[in-house]
Specification:
Number of strands: 6
Shape: elongated
Distance between the termini: 50 Å
Order of helices and strands: EHEHEHEHEHEHHHHH
Radius of gyration: 19 Å
Structural class: alpha/beta
Strand content: 5-15%
Oligomer: single chain
């Protein structure tokens, strides 16, 4: 059985030691390394190629949200689960917007932590119930408010759309935005769906009509 390779990222070494001890009892999980801040996490991801990163939010040097965003660009196959004491809306939505596929609080049971790691390794999302309720409430609020043109697409999709409108290829967009070409392709697909178009030319025309470019 292939074990899930996990990197632990937290600025408290005692917490990392405890987390390693808890995860060592799970035969499906292998802790391959630790990092004390976001910069160390980026270096460890490059050297160790973990499947899943358990990431704290608040850390010195480079915080967990910024590190998560950079990991998604540099190592798109690595999944990040935020593991933190912070459950305020800002921390939750910043972490998820950065690309985290899971969000757990540090008081979570060991079994739930294992479930989150397995879900992340499968490419699935896993949210602690209290976090999930906040996400659902925010989505309901957004659905109740009519979306303006710039709210149709995310900030990153808008960047892709602007370059697309200038005739840039996926490869050129990837180079300009420091993204993987596959990530750009996914953004383009999402843009087509949101704008209700089927080609790059149609997307550019529709974007101009909406004042997006």
């Amino acid at each position: 059985m292939t074990r899930i390779r996990v990197l632990l990222v937290d600025d408290q070494s005692l917490f990392r030691e405890g987390l390693r001890a808890v995860l060592s009892t799970d035969a499906a999980i292998e802790v391959v390394g630790e990092a004390g801040n976001g910069e160390e996490a980026l270096a460890a991801c490059g050297a160790l190629r973990p499947d899943v990163v358990l990431m704290d939010v608040r850390m010195p040097v480079l915080d967990g949200v910024s590190a998560t965003r950079r990991i998604q660009v540099q190592h798109p196959r690595t999944r990040v689960v935020m593991l933190t004491t912070f459950d305020d809306d800002e921390a939750i939505f910043e972490g998820l917007r950065a690309g985290a596929v899971g969000y757990l609080l540090k008081d979570a049971a060991a079994a739930r932590l294992g479930d989150a790691i397995r879900a992340a390794a499968r490419g699935e999302s896993f949210l602690q119930p209290s976090v999930a309720s906040k996400v659902i409430a925010e989505l309901s609020r957004l659905r109740a408010r009519p979306a303006g043109p710039k709210e149709l697409v995310s900030a990153r999709e808008l960047e892709v759309l602007q370059l697309l409108g200038r005739g840039a290829s996926n490869k050129e967009i990837a180079a300009a935005l420091f993204l993987a070409e596959g990530t750009v392709k996914n953004h383009v697909t999402n843009i087509f769906e949101k704008l209700g178009v089927q080609s790059r030319a149609e997307a550019a025309i529709r974007a101009k009509e909406l004042g997006l470019i």
